[in-house]
Every structure is written in C-alpha cells, then in structure tokens.
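Continuing the series of single-chain predictions for the mutant panel. This is the parent chain; the variants come on the following pages.
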Amino acid sequence: MKKALLYSIIGLLAIIFSSCATSSFTRGNQYPQMYEQKPLTLLVMPPINNTNHVEAKDLLYTSITRPLAEAGYYVVPPFLTMEVLKAESAYDAELFINGKLDKFRQFFGADAVVFSVIDVWEKQGFGIKTNIHYIIKSAKTNEIIFDRSCDLYLDLSVNSGSGGIIGALADITASAINTALTDHIKAARKTNEYIFMDIPRGPYSEYYLNDMDEPADKKDIKRTVK
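Parent structure:
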C-alpha cells in the first residue's frame, strides 16, 4: 500500500515537472513581449562587428531579412535602410543599440529594430565558427522583445568512408579544399536560420498569435551543422 502510494506521488511529480519543463520552453513564454507589442514592420540595423573578419558585417546583414520575412513580418528593404542611414551618418548600430529608437519609427514606420552583434567569425579546423547575439527592440517603448544568441560551427569536413591511410589523406585534402571554397555567407544563413526558427510568427503568417504554445528552444543555443 505504501509502495503504491509512493509510486503514485512519484508519477504525479514527474507529470508536474514535465508540464513545467514543456511550458517554460514555448514561444509564448520565451518571447511574451513579441505577442504583447505585436510588431508588424521590422528594420534591420547593420551588424556590430567585434571580429577581425571585415566582411562579416555585410555578409550577415544581407542574410537576416529573409528568415524574418518568411516568419510573417514586413522588413524594411535593406538597400533603402542603408541609403538613408548613410545619408544621415547613422550607419553604426553601436550608436543606437542602447539609445532611443523613436526616430526609426518616424522615418521608416518601424515597430521594432533588429540588432546583431558578431563576437566570433572565423575559419576553425575544417569549418567556420560564428558566435552572434541578436536583439530586437521595440521602437515604441525601447524594450527588448527578442533576445537570442547562437554559437554555431559549420562542419565542412569530408568523410568518404574509403578507409586506410590513402583514404584518410584524401579526406583531409578534400576537407581543406571544401573549407577554403565555402563562402562565409553559408555560415551566416545557417546561424540566422537557427536564431529565427522559434521567433513568434508575424502578422503576415497564418499562425499569427496562434503559435504561443509551439515548442521553443533555449534562448542561447550551440549547434554543429553540416
């Protein structure tokens, strides 16, 4: 009788903990401000580049818009954003990430502004490693409504399965060539893909405001992808 009662309690606790774990990793719980603020128009700022890879800023910038548009948001065209920002000497996102964003609402009609900070972008072994932090801030209230980081390693190694010393040397050579020839834009696209995979769907999506219970990954993620 005591054992039966004990097992019942253990089972109940397991259900409770399981329920809590599930509910704490939903889009609604991870990004409540996205549902409260209901942004429609997003403006993507040029990335803040803290690395020595000078091309990283432009490479990442050109690949952020697509996943956001596919998620159901209207994104101010990057070329228009850049033209205006350059004309106003406001190209550096560092000047605005901690400041007021109401000007972006006035000039562009933006509801929220997307910032990204590149901390790592380099070829490492037979692959490309990136570490990027993404922040979306409301242009109305200046609040952070989306905050994620992705530590991603794009594995470009080749394994032919040939075996033996000759096969191993061939794989090493092929891996080196593959790493040298792969454009860094591929790593940028993969990072953006994982970052915005869990973003609440926007007004142009059929799932708008109906995806709060969808499972979401942790805010800070680490991935190795091929």
